[in-house]
Amino acid sequence: MKHRTTPMSRLAPRLAAILLATTSAALPVWGQTSPARGPLPKSDAHADEMPLDDYLGLLQRIAPAAEAGARAYLAVFQRRCGRPMRTSELRRALSQGDGDPVLLGLIRASHLRDAAGEAQWAQQVRCPGGSTP
After folding, report:
1. Nearest CA to 121 among 100, 97, 96?
2. Are residues 97 and 48 in contact, defined by beta-carbon separation less than 8 angstroms?
3. Cα(79)–Cα(131) distance, integer angstroms
4. Is 29 a residue whose pLDDT tops 50?
5. Which of 78, 81, 79, 74 is nearest to 127 (CA)?
6. How far apart are CA 101 and CA 116, in angstroms?
């Protein structure tokens, strides 16, 4: 009998759905019951983010390889872009479409304990706006 492995492209939406479901309970929810009350108060979007360490802790509980790959992605992002990645950016990288192929590649390489693969994927991490130093 042949063993078939699930391609990362099929795992990405499931992983993203689990992460979104897990973290959405920890995020603040705003609602407005009546338009007569006026606009919602402005808030600093970054101040309302879940702390990155908490997010990575949840990720580690769900999928340890995903957490390890995400940490590698974050480290490369910091080095290349000169700033830390925000939790919301990491969440988008995991959940938009089929997920960021570079992040998913790092997760897969982490799962396979493939140091050469991790190095190849790490070279492809891009900064917002497409610039890399």
Report:
1. 100
2. no
3. 13
4. no
5. 81
6. 17
